[in-house]
Amino acid sequence: MNEELETIKETAKAAQEIAKTTGQVVDAGQKLSKFVAKFIKGPLEQGMGIVEDKLKYMRWERQCCLIERAEHFLKEVGIQNPTRAVQMKIAIPLFQGASLEDNDDIQDLFAKLLVNAANAESGIEIKRIYIDILERISTLEAQILDKIYSLPFSETQHKGVLTADLPKQVDIRPDDPKHKYKHPNREVALALANLARLGCISAGMSVAGGELLYIVHPTLLGKSFIEACTLTI
Q: How confident is the model over 3-18, as a mean pLDDT?
């Protein structure tokens, strides 16, 4: 009974979040409709129709893409259909986030997360925070995480990794105390700062309190996130 009540609460909470988001989208849509109506010299309803049709089409297109990729990944792991139900508190925000994602690489991660959630043999428990991370990272940040977590976790967690050559290459911090460290370029540094904010990596701090981004360490959350977005074959 307690589990059923908890599920109902989580479903209601998810519905409230969707309603809140929907209200924000409606307000933004009305504002854009007025803007469009000015330029086409037509009534507000005509401008709203143009905007709504385009937004519906774009979201429908991304939903179709998600379905296609998820079906492809299901076959890749050797199953035709889901073998376990995905909890509503995971399914609703996952579908919502994936349908709003316009980057194919990131949406593929959403699709893999969905397939792992629906595969009883994946050995992966999907957390709500994984969806939050996917909604907040760029393609570059996803590439950086992939590189960092391609190295042995225990070794990199202890020594850290060098970031100067990311996203092309990542190296384990050398034992040489005289090694001269290079800083990553600004774009990579900003990506690393965001990943550290999300808890996917850990950055050191200088004496003055600034972030040291030329060496970073993997985290348990980052490792679990990458595993959850990687197909278990």
A: 52
What average pLDDT does range 68-88 have in this prediction?
A: 91
First and final CA of the chain: distance in angstroms?
Answer: 36
Quick one: how far is CA 124 from the chain centroid? Answer: 17
Max CA separation in the chain (angstroms): 70
Distance, CA of 199 to CA of 11 (rounded, Å): 26
Cβ neighbors of 45 (< 8 A, separation 6 or more) are none
Q: Are residues 77 and 119 in contact, defined by beta-carbon separation less than 8 angstroms?
A: yes
Q: Which residues contact 195 (CB under 8 A, 6 or more apart)?
A: 137, 141, 144, 145, 201, 222
Return the pLDDT at 210. 65
Contacts of 48-53 with CB under 8 Å at 24 or more apart are: none
Q: Is the pLDDT of residue 78 over 70?
A: yes
